[in-house]
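Table S5 (text form). Sequence records supplied for joint modeling of the three-component complex.
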Amino acid sequence: MKQQEKEKEYEAYVKEKTPVRKPGPAMAKAFVTGGIICTIGQAILNACEKAGMSKDISASWCSLILILASVVLTGFGIYPKIANWGGAGALVPITGFANSVAAPAIEYKKEGQVFGIGCKIFTIAGPVILYGVFTSWVLGLLYWIGTLIGIV
Amino acid sequence: MNAIKGTQSIAFSESPYLVSAGSVAGKKEGEGPLGKYFDIASEDDLFGEKTWELAEGTMQKLACMLALKNAGVQPEEVRYLFGGDLLRQGIATSMGAEELQIPVFGLFGACSTSGEALALAAMTVAAGYGDLVLAATSSHFGSAEKEFRFPLGYANQRPLSSTWTVTGSGAFLVGKKKSRVRISGVTIGKIVDYGLKDSQNMGACMAPAACDTILQNLMDFGRDEKDYDRIITGDLGYVGQSILFDLLRKKGLDIKENHMDCGMTIFDQQTQHTNSGGSGCGCAAITLAAYIMPQLISGEWKRILFVPTGALMSTVSFNEGESVPGIAHGIVLEHC
Amino acid sequence: MDYINAFWVGGLICALAQILLDRTKMMPGRVMVSLVVLGCILGFVQIFKPLQEYAGAGVSVPLLGFGNTLWNGVKEAVDKEGFIGIFLGGFKAGAAGISGALIFGYIASWIFEPKMKE
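The corresponding structure-token record, covering 606 residues in total, follows.
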């Protein structure tokens, strides 16, 4: 018990001593970065709908174009620089997801197509897919039960 | 007469000498405050190889050959090589040592490996088991980041407490051959764990170990902190240094005047965006080889305590929720 | 007008996530997972749709949108196929995003080399 107390004490002390980014500037940069990416997304959506595409297809095109842009920027080493400045503004949009797939693909090719890229491409993004699909499954189950008992 | 001292130390009388050193650094290190001191500062972080791991192996090999060249010694004359790095199964060391064809001991001490290697090399020479022994270590930003954090292309924003793994290799020739610097004593560290689980705040994880070894060294040798011109830690960084000062102050010691940290010295925090400083086995090693040694050779510093620190975690242990303990080894170096 | 809404809502979500990154010890992976799961839940409790009508890409571009897409896919599949829909809908709806990232990421590995950070 005494050991645990000492550890908690040290943890609290370290928290005090460890500098964190000033929230104001960091949030502002994230705001601007994320805002710009979303605005670009909006422009793509508008252009697609103007061309007569349905909402679903427009959304898919929006995702694909942003993903492609992110992958290219990742390849040229530019996306990491954007994230260095914009923090969560680069992580939160779907471009962050794309970067988390492209980066391992590029890095692990030295370990081969199967054991390098194949095994490790989802090393960062895997949890997003797993927990996204699982959550939708759980909620789907609840929804289905809801339809059965008539509350939906 | 060599003698064991206290509970963790050894004093060498007709000591092993730090005969020569070799330092190989990468691009960012070459652009830093110590850039002009390194034997080699390469623009190409791949060192002409295909992978980061091969590059790191090549750096170790180059550092060893530079140390040998600086002493006019051939590889065949070296009895043993003590080497280590950060990577799984110590592959950079194996790849580098293979070409040298010197009998090799592979070590793991995380970022304290330079201390561990120097201590073992000194003990081997002092005990009469070799006239010339090499101690080498390395780290590489590309290989370390990939193994411990994220692939290089990943767009993450580093917290302010994080440190930057140094791309560098330092090698030291330890032996009976007289030189201007001798290893007069070593203090082998114990693992010290204050229960911290933050792998992005290495300085805080390792500071307790540095404190423990420094205290033990002073106790075993009957010295106080002012007896050293410098007490030099490996890579505590800005955050770790501050914590170390507090921990030692609680024990009645003040090292503010004579403390130096290799991680804080090797990069310019303002212009190179390295947050808390440099880290990795190579950090302490190349700083010792390129920057500290000349000061000892010239007599600018007469006696220093070199304390590289390591964080003993693996990606598995960290994911399994284990804490990050630290270790630190103390090497007493004297001008002679 | 919709550009302004997309900008400030998207920016706000990112600014809030920035607090998570800086103030807690959450790693980026956890933040991404939290956003996707939250998106699913917002879709389930029918809050996402009105948000999307107001802010457009401001909520659909962040990973919240991906979560909602997965939820919608499952909902439609359950409406259509019943119980088995809970297995059919998720991946199918997320296909564009996942395939896009996978395929473009893989092709990128043919073209680009890993670069040291500066």
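Note: The helical segments of chain A are 2-17, 23-50, 55-75, 79-86, 88-91, 94-107, 113-120, 126-149.
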